[in-house]
Write a structure and sequence with these properties.
The complex is a heterodimer of chains A (about 290) and B (about 280).
Chain A: E1 2-7, H1 15-25, E2 29-33, H2 41-45, E3 48-56, E4 60-63, E5 85-86, E6 92-93, H3 103-107, E7 113-116, E8 119-127, E9 132-138, H4 145-163, E10 167-171, H5 178-184, E11 189-194, H6 198-213, E12 218-225, H7 229-242, E13 245-251, H8 254-258, H9 265-268, H10 273-288
Parallel strand pairs in A: 1-10, 1-11, 2-9, 2-10, 11-12, 12-13
Antiparallel strand pairs in A: 3-8, 4-7, 5-6, 8-9
Chain B: E1 2-6, H1 14-24, E2 29-33, H2 41-45, E3 48-62, H3 72-76, E4 82-85, E5 88-91, H4 101-105, E6 111-126, E7 129-136, H5 144-152, E8 160-164, H6 171-177, E9 182-187, H7 191-206, E10 211-218, H8 223-231, E11 235-241, H9 244-252, H10 256-259, H11 261-280
Parallel strand pairs in B: 1-8, 1-9, 2-7, 2-8, 9-10, 10-11
Antiparallel strand pairs in B: 3-6, 4-5, 6-7
Helix pairs in contact in B: 1-11, 5-6
The chains are: A alpha/beta (about 290), B alpha/beta (about 280).
Chain lengths: ~290, ~280
């Protein structure tokens, strides 16, 4: 069983479209949406949910007012490094900012503070006509997104092993922080989807630092080709210097950009040029994993 | 006044809106690029960088002469950044979230607070814009502390700040939008961007931050976004059409309001409108 992760650094280059297309082209793969803040894969693949489970993030602090003597120790400036404790009649514990570190608990002489479990999101398993996808929705601004990504990946991996499937396709979030690191870790191979814009190139250089750091074999797919040939050449030169293979250049299709109806082109119009390009990308990717 | 520009989904046009707004304002602006994982605004603004500062986070410094390897610190650390194995103490700096717990609880006072670099903050100037960007080191897990440090830098209160936010709804995003006076949510007419716009608007409602929407890459088929916003009584501040000229200028790193004066006026109008609404609050 192998794991392929789709990353980009910059958002909006086409990660989810590529992931959804690849998953649709398989009849024995599992998809994992590891963008837990803003998951989108299910919007394209439209699975029916077959199971959902609660996700518990880090615990949060809760004050037992009957034990609190208003000594003020937990409210002292900079005690809570996450600024989760505000001043009020009683100390105000803001679970939105609390990271569950427990510092307020050790400082409280009255043992008036406890850590409590809190549901911080949900993990779903969905079924499409041919495949399964695992995805999650984390509540906004929660720490522990990396932990949720790990749980989603484990679930996808276990399903693949159980069902004897060959491949897990992981759709990562944008950026290069903890969710991307968690998405990348232990993957067999990464496909970097980029575009010929200066912003995307700048982000490409940074994401490659990360794949090198984690020593993950990487390939590049340039999406939206044709809008800037100078930048395309920059990407090609850079890939050559880094010895990263560019597996496909997908042209920019204005019609697709304007009439984005939320359909997956390889399914809704498999004969189109765009679909043919994506199918080619997929075939090349399969031969390289 | 601080105006944050967010989107949820990446690639909808946060940076495009932020830079064009800053360039069209017609007054002195503070510009904060808080997309610390992938800061790109400088590509468009080309500021003269004047200085850099290293951004740091607190970490434990362990004096092994005092340490008795009792393991209390490792037991306490919910982030698993410390481990004690026999006569050895290990610190995993990238897992540490600087909560201060370990040096507060160490019975031997063997741990003190130290600092570690996790990124940089660059300061620059260009025209009327005083520019600042944060950049997280590759391999670091989270950059919210960099954004917090950037937001804490003192400035003249009559200056208007524009904050280019990271995508997603992470703790880093929260640091970037928290207590801003107005937030612009940039979306585009796709199912995915619409989904992420709704999540963004829900978060802003929870934080009680006044907001408006900009529809980018419009195809003229975004009545679903307009209907949603009108139901929620959220203003659509501007609609930017899908346009090859704009896309090509973007690819070259050229702000389109400089090339197409009509847009400069439109951005100036919404800037004035937001500032006026901020003053009346």
């Amino acid at each position: 069983m192998k794991e392929l992760v789709i990353i980009s650094g910059k958002g909006g280059t086409g990660k989810t479209l590529i992931s959804a297309s690849f998953i649709s082209l398989m009849k024995d793969a599992i998809g994992a949406d590891c963008d837990v803040d803003t998951p989108n894969l299910h919007l394209l693949l439209k699975p029916s949910v077959i199971s959902e489970e609660k996700y518990y993030g880090p615990k949060v602090a809760l004050l037992n007012k009957s034990k609190c003597t208003l000594c003020g120790k937990c409210m002292e400036e900079d005690l809570c490094r996450f600024h989760a404790i505000g001043k009020g009649e009683f100390p105000v514990f803001n679970s939105f900012y609390c990271r569950g570190c427990g510092v307020c608990i050790v400082i409280c002489p009255e043992k008036a503070i406890d850590l409590v479990e809190r549901e911080a999101g949900k993990i779903y398993t969905g079924k499409t006509e041919k495949n399964f996808i695992v995805y999650g929705q984390l509540e906004p601004a929660q720490l522990g997104s990396g932990k949720m990504v790990v749980q989603i990946k484990n679930k996808a991996r276990n399903m693949a092993l159980e069902k004897g499937l060959e491949l897990v396709i992981i759709d990562s979030s944008a950026g290069l922080g903890c969710t991307v690191i968690a998405s990348l870790s232990n993957c067999n191979c990464a496909l970097i989807v980029t575009e010929p814009t200066l912003s995307a190139i700048s982000d490409l250089l940074r994401i490659i630092e990360l794949t090198e750091y984690f020593n993950i074999p990487s390939f590049i797919c340039i999406n939206k080709c044709g809008i800037n040939q100078v930048n395309e050449k920059k990407i090609i030169d850079f890939a050559r210097e880094k010895e990263i293979k560019i597996i496909e250049k997908i042209p920019f299709y204005k019609d697709f950009a304007i009439n984005n109806t939320g359909e997956i082109p390889v399914i809704s119009c498999p004969e189109s040029e765009l679909s043919q390009k994506i199918i080619n990308t997929w075939k090349k990717m399969l031969s390289l994993i | 006044m601080e105006i944050s520009v967010m989107s949820g989904k990446g690639g909808t046009g946060k940076t495009t809106v932020s830079i064009n707004l800053a360039l069209s304002a017609g007054e002195k602006i503070r510009f904060l690029d808080c997309d610390v994982e992938e800061p790109d605004a400088k590509i468009f603004l080309l500021p003269r960088m004047e200085r850099i500062e290293y951004s740091t986070v607190s970490i434990p410094v362990i004096d092994e002469k005092l340490c008795t390897y009792c393991g209390k610190c490792a037991e306490f650390c919910i982030f698993n950044a410390l481990a004690v194995i026999k006569k050895k103490i290990l610190f995993f700096e990238r897992l540490c979230r600087s909560c201060s717990g370990c040096w507060l609880i160490c019975p031997e006072r063997a741990i003190t607070e130290g600092k570690r670099e996790n990124g940089i903050i660059r300061y620059g100037e260009v025209g009327e814009i005083s520019f600042m960007e944060g950049e997280l080191k590759a391999g670091e897990e989270t950059g919210y502390s960099i954004v917090r440090d950037m937001r804490k830098i003192p400035y003249k209160k009559d200056l208007i700040t524009i904050i280019d936010c990271p995508p997603g709804l992470s703790p880093t995003l929260l640091e970037a939008i928290d207590k801003t006076d107005f937030s612009i949510v940039v979306t585009e007419p796709s199912e995915t961007a619409f989904h992420d716009m709704r999540l963004s608007l829900e978060l802003l409602e929870r934080l009680k931050i006044p907001c408006g929407v900009i529809i980018n890459k419009s195809s003229g088929r975004e009545s679903f976004i307009e209907d949603y916003c009108s139901k929620k009584k959220i203003d659509i501040l501007l609609t930017i059409p899908f346009d090859m000229e704009i896309a090509c200028l973007y690819s070259k790193g050229i702000p389109f309001s400089i090339e197409i004066p009509l847009w400069k006026n439109k951005f100036r109008d919404i800037f004035k409108k937001i500032v006026k609404s901020g003053k009346s609050l």
